[in-house]
Write a structure and sequence with these properties.
This protein is mostly helical and 91 residues long. It is 55% helix and 0% strand. The protein has a domain of 50 residues. It is globular, with a radius of gyration of 14 Å.
Length: 91
Amino acid sequence: MKGKSQDPSQLNLLPQRLEDLLDPKRPLCKLAKRIPWDVIENQFADLYHHSGRPAKPIHLMVSLLILKQLYNLSDESIVERWVENPYFQFF
């Protein structure tokens, strides 16, 4: 089952968006802006089944795979780094 994207109308606990707190000149911010996420999500959407347990969002899964390859990290390491690194989370 395809994961749901975050609802942009949902209230945040923080008054600012993560994007507003980061330096847009950092390489991961620049790369995130250049990737056509909507195209990727549309291409992968057909691979998800509409029943069963909900999956994680496509954007998250693809971005973790890209980061894993860029930084040569294990599955466990990429998740640990994602939790601690706001630039990984933004990407």
